[in-house]
Every structure is written in C-alpha cells, then in structure tokens.
Specification:
By secondary structure, the protein is α/β, with parallel strands linked by helices. The chain is 34% helix and 21% strand. The chain is built from 13 helices and 14 strands. The strands form 3 sheets. Strands 4, 5, 8, 9, 10, 11, 12, 13 and 14 form a 9-stranded mixed β-sheet that branches. Helix 6 packs parallel to helix 7. The C terminus is likely disordered. The structure holds adenosine-5'-diphosphate and magnesium ion. The site of adenosine-5'-diphosphate has 18 residues, from helix 4, strand 12, strand 14 and helix 11.
C-alpha cells in the first residue's frame, strides 16, 4: 500500500513553486494559506493571491496543482483561491524590502552588491537602447539576475526591444516589474497610453526615476542597467544623484565620435564623480558578402572617444567592444527579442555578448572611482 501523503510532504512540494513575478517560493511569501489532505488522498490547497486581478492567477494555479499532484499518494488537487488581506500585503512588502517598512533605494544601501551600469550616449539613434537590451539579455542568459530601468523617459524603447507588453503588477505602493527574457524591466512606456507623449519637467522626471528605483521590487539583482536618455540633461544628473556609484558605459557610432558629441556624455562624470567603465562603438562597420568590412560611418571612432575620455577623466577608459551593423540586430529589436537571444551567432550578437561578459566579470569595487578624499602627501 502507498504511504499516505501528509500535509508536510505537500508543503515541501509547494516550496518548489516559485511566484512568477516575485521569484520567491510561494511558501515563503505567505501565499499558501492552508493545506489539507483527506483520507482519499485529495489535497486541498488554499492560495492567497497578492491582488484580486493577479495576472499570474492561472500560472500559479497550474504550478501548484502540478507540484501537489506529484506527491506520492495524492489522488486529486483542489485549489481554493483567495486574496491577501491588506495586513498580509503590508507584511509581504516589508519582507520584500528586507524588513524595511518604507521604500528605499536598495542599490545604495550598505552591503548591496548590485553592479549598476548607466548606458549613455551623446545623441540619440546610436544604438544605446539596443546595446542596453542586448547586454541585459546576454547577462540573463548567462544566469545573472538582471534588471533594466528605462530612464529615457521621453524616448523610451526598452519595452518594445525586450518584448514586454504588460504593466508592472501593483502591490499597493510597490510595483512588481514584468520579466522578459529573464530580465526585469521597468519603463515609463508601461504607464502611458500608446502614442501619447510624456510632457514632464525636471522635478517630475527626478521623482519618476526615484520611484522606479525605490518602489519597484527589483529583488536581489546582480546587475542593474539604466538606459539613459541621450545627452547630459536632468535625468542623467538625477541618476548620478540617486545612484552615485552607477558606472557609465558610453555608446557611440564612429560618426558621432567624429562629431565630438559622445564624450560629452562621458565627461559629465567629472562633475558627478561617476566612473566611466568604457566605450562601446556601435554600427562600427557592415560586413560585405566577400567578408570585407565597409566602414559606413567612418573608422576608429570608439577608440578616439575612449582616448579623449581617458585624457579628460584621468583614468583609463577602454573600448569595450565594436558592434557591427547587422540587419538581424535591427529586426530582433523591432520584434522584441534581442539579437543575443534570437541569433546569438550573428556578428553583432557575438560582439554584444562579449561586452556583456566583460561587464559582468568586473568586480564592483572602488577602482577608478573618486573617493572624495585627498591623498596624504609624503
Ligand atoms: N548594430 C546595429 N545594427 C543594425 N541596426 C542597429 C544596430 N544598433 C542599433 N540599430 C538600430 O538603430 C536604431 C536606433 O537604435 P536605438 O538602440 O534605438 O538607439 P538609441 O537608443 O541610441 O536612440 C534602431 O532601429 C536599432 O534597431
Ligand atoms: Mg533609445
């Protein structure tokens, strides 16, 4: 005769069910209200969803049913869905914030190990968002926990490039970000009706970035990438104030390098004491059928920007990679699947993956960062 399934065995099985948005076991976040097993082996599981209209309702029900049904001796699974009370949600939010009752920017808390990279450019259209989306997807593919904050409020394009259609789920004042290609992403584009422009000024922009940092449940990230707007405006300054340890990655094309606009985005670092990690030269060339390279926008621009920034900032700023023009990269971006996922063997994907790995393997440390102290002269 089969062993009788017990409540403990079912609970154990449910501890393997991960909430798709919060990415923690449902047993840990107070979603499992009750478990009963009767003599006939029927398991009845009470599940409290975070919100009434939880978009993950079906997925959670399915995952719980599958997990409980696998327990030896369970003959049937019944799910009784409920919704968390206000008190339960308060407790959950506080738990997700690591015991802090109020929203905080976790990335600036002592002991936080998330590496924060802000992707900057002197002007638009150089491929900043393409680089951001691909770096994120490549890092996530390598198993890192990655978040993307689309800080390009007026020209947001991260939802489209990552193929995110949904909105963050609201847990009262906390936002659970949508996840696409295993990347958590938040963008103003998830909140404004399609086709409607964002007409905000400085203080509102600052508040929006602050909310995206503090009110979004990012979880335990290895890397946070910010897609900055082009140039050195209010938002770049807000980001520097809110995340002083964010390090800059400057994206340029050979052409905008020649025009001198790229290093402006990097030289803002002198005012903000941010570190510039390096330069990505995008649209570097177009490979011809015979294997030769056509330098559509000129040649060597990434190196020129890196050299100038090295001189201005007084720390070594390397070229992190050269990404060729690649039709598959553009198509992939339009389709919402970054090229590092859709066509990883393409030349652009290989270059972007290499940049992602070099950024991921950097230690978050003090190297190259201004310590704000004057060294003692000997
Ligand atoms: N390496 C590349 N090869 C082909 N198309 C690219 C490449 N990088 C970017 N693009 C395309 O160029 C356009 C501008 O890129 P985008 O990432 O939106 O720039 P930005 O964010 O700097 O304004 C997009 O249509 C994008 O798909
Ligand atoms: Mg962009």
């Amino acid at each position: 005769m089969d062993a009788m399934p017990t409540v403990e065995l079912v609970r154990d099985a449910l501890s393997k069910v991960i909430d798709p948005e919060i990415r923690r076991p449902i047993t840990e976040i107070g979603m499992v209200r009750s478990i009963d097993v009767d003599d006939a082996g029927v398991a009845t599981v009470g599940i409290d969803l975070t919100t009434q209209g939880c978009p993950m309702k079906e997925r959670i029900t399915g995952d719980v049913t599958d997990a409980a049904a696998k327990v030896a001796g369970v003959t049937d699974v019944k799910i009784e869905l409920g919704v968390m009370s206000e008190e339960q949600r308060l407790e959950l939010r506080s738990k997700l914030r690591g015991g802090k009752p109020e929203p905080v920017i976790q990335f600036t808390q002592p002991g936080n190990m998330t590496r924060v990279y802000a992707i900057a450019s002197g002007k638009g259209g150089v491929g900043k968002s393409t680089v951001t989306a691909n770096l994120a997807a490549a890092m996530a593919k390598d198993g890192l926990k990655v978040g993307v904050l689309d800080a390009d409020i007026f020209g947001f394009s991260i939802p489209g490039m990552l193929g995110v259609t949904g909105q963050p789920t609201r847990l009262d004042d906390m936002l659970l970000p949508p996840i696409a290609h295993e990347v958590k992403a938040v963008s103003i584009g998830m909140f404004v009706p399609a086709g409607q422009p964002v007409v905000w000024r400085g203080p509102m922009l600052h508040r929006a970035i602050e909310q995206f940092l503090a009110d979004v449940y990012w979880g335990d990230l290895d890397v946070l990438l910010l897609d900055l707007p082009p140039g050195t405006g209010d938002i770049a300054i807000s980001v520097a104030q809110l995340l002083p340890h964010a390090e800059l990655v400057v994206v340029t094309t050979p052409q905008s390098a020649a025009a001198g606009v790229a290093e402006r985005a990097g030289s803002i670092a002198t005012q903000t004491s941010q570190n510039v990690v390096g330069v990505v030269e995008n649209m570097a060339w177009l490979e011809q059928a015979d294997g030769s390279r056509l330098h559509v926008f000129g040649e060597g621009g990434g190196q020129v920007v890196a050299d100038r920034l090295t001189k201005t900032l007084g720390t070594s700023v390397p070229v992190l990679g050269q990404v060729p023009l690649d039709i598959t990269a553009r198509e992939a971006g339009d389709a919402g699947t970054p090229v590092v996922i859709s066509d990883p063997a393409s030349p652009a994907a290989e270059a972007l993956t290499a940049v992602a790995r070099s950024l991921a393997s950097r230690q978050r440390g003090l190297a190259g960062r201004s310590l704000g102290v004057t060294p003692i002269k000997r």
